Amino acid sequence: MNNQKSFLFAMLTLLMLVVAAVAQAYPIDAYPETGIKRLEFYRLAQLGEIRGRQLPAGGKLGVDDIELNYPVLPVDAAGHVQLPQRDVLLSRRISDLLAAEDLPRYGIAVLDYSDPDNPVYASHNDDFHSNVGSVGKMIVGVAVMQQLADIYPNDIEARRRILRDTRIVADEYSNYDHHEVPLFDVAARDLDYRKLRVGDEGNLWEWLDWMFSASSNAAASMVVQQATLLNHFGRDYPAGVQAHQDWLEQTSHHDEGAVTVDALTHGLTANGFDTNLIRQGSYFTRGGKRAAAGVTSYATPRELVRLLAMMEAGTLVDDWSSLELKRLLYMTQRRIRYASHPALHDSAVYFKSGSLYGCKPEPDFVCQKYKGNRINILGSVAIIESPADDPQLKYAVAVVSNVLYKNSAVAHQTLAMRIHRLLESIHGEAR
Asked: Strand 190-195 vs strand 180-185: parallel, antiparallel, or unpaired?
């Protein structure tokens, strides 16, 4: 009888371990915590319960496996994280990865903290000052987290409650956007992949996820709107649909814009950033821009990598916010541009990208996506942890380019491979 009990106990223990392993096997296991329904779709797809795309090897971390790396970095007098002194030799090797004619049109910043006690910083034109398009959505995420931290400095559960329980319905601020997002009906197990429309609803966490994972401009504008409302209502947020609508309708274009810009820039200045070097200054849609005046948006590779460094150090707003932002950046949708090279297949990738391209009439030139002849800006920021299950290589990178006529998405993809192989070789040599 005792042997039988021991056997049953052993089997029960084994079953519990198997269940735990399954629960931790995917990055999309946070639906119960966040209410982000897209995550449940991908979780079920990985289990084979519904049809859906399988994730790459590096995309299968559980939410509890996503951690901050806490590199030891210098801080200024105010306690804000700074980057180490530029490593000249590694910087030269980074520059050598580019074609000679493209050197002036690229800005690159790399922070290698594979050894967290001895991070190394390298760069090429890291003061390259440019609009970085959707990369600015990272600043929107920081703004929301900073507002929540200001209102609830010692109450993490209150912040979670705002993100999880605040229901947001898309209005005219969301118009117009060409990006599609996954809309999953959990009960019916039905997925609709389409552009967001006025009337679509989700909680604040879900709108943040649509902004990051699908890079939806409609979602980003609704999140900017909520950052504005948080800035105005403070601890009374959410004040209710009618109160929100009344304030938005009764506030002038100029005055509402001032509150919006203040909300977006406060997230940066509170964390020691110079808004002459990095700033998101407006909505991402025509509807939002009609409602509220904005200012110009831009960033440099150096400041973008410093933002990622602060996040990894747990000092971007605070430790909890840094981890939540890192989770939101984790790639669980289709990998694109810089993040898409097969060399990163086994890596965990935390990523955001943004494109701005435009064309002018020119004989024998055909305008194509990411291949403008008037402007062809592409911004990419990424944290790479390789291999995902036991990372030996950990680094943050920001790339901003404006190379005309060339497909910038392919160029960034190729550069990702070259930087990755370079750092692999360096650490291989060190071993």
From this structure: antiparallel
Report the C-alpha gap between 406 and 384 in whole angstroms.
25
Tens digit of pLDDT for each residue in 247-304?
Answer: 999 999 999 999 999 999 999 999 999 999 999 999 999 999 999 999 999 999 999 9
Residue 153: burial class (beta carbons within 10 Å; 0-12, 13-18, 19+): exposed
The gap from C-alpha 68 to its chain's centroid, in whole angstroms, comes to 15
Q: What is the pLDDT of residue 429?
A: 54
Residue 356: the pLDDT is: 92
Task: State how far the Cα of 194 lies from the Cα of 183, in Å rounded to an integer.
Answer: 8
238: left (phi over 0), alpha (psi -120 to 50) or beta: beta
Inter-residue contact 63 to 29 (CB < 8 Å) = yes
**Mean of per-residue pLDDT scores for the chain:** 90
Which among 322, 329, 277 is positioned nearest to 298, based on CA atoms? 277
Helices and strands, number each (H, E), in the chain? 14, 9
Rounded to whole angstroms, how far apart are CA atoms 323 and 315?
10
Look up residue 83 and give its DSSP letter: P
| First-to-last C-alpha distance (Å) of the chain | 54
- In this structure, the strands spanning 348-358 and 393-402 are unpaired
Regions of the chain with pLDDT less than 50: 1-2, 5-26, 430-431
pTM for the model stands at: 0.90
Taking the CB of residue 67, how many other CB atoms lie within 10 A of it?
Answer: 12
Whether cis (ω within 30° of 0) applies to the bond prior to 70 is no
Name all domains of the chain by residue range, CATH numbers in brackets. Answer: 88-131+322-430 (3.30.450), 134-298 (no CATH)
Collapsing DSSP states into helix, strand and coil, what is residue 225? helix
Give the amino acid at 181. Answer: V
pLDDT in tens, 281-292: 999 999 999 999
Residue 7 neighbours by CB under 8 Å, 6+ apart: none
Angle value at C-alpha 326, between 325 and 327, nearest 5 degrees: 90
| Contact indicator for 220, 211 with CB cutoff of 8 Å | yes
The pair phi, psi for residue 122, each rounded to 5°, is -135, 155
Q: Is the peptide bond preceding residue 387 cis, with omega within 30 degrees of 0?
A: yes
- The token pair at 17 is 């371990």
3-state secondary structure of 34: helix
Residue 65: the pLDDT is 87
pLDDT at 49: 86
Bond before 56 cis per omega within 30 degrees: no
Query: What's the CA gap between 329 and 316, in Å, rounded?
Result: 14
Q: Cβ(247)–Cβ(229) under 8 Å?
A: yes
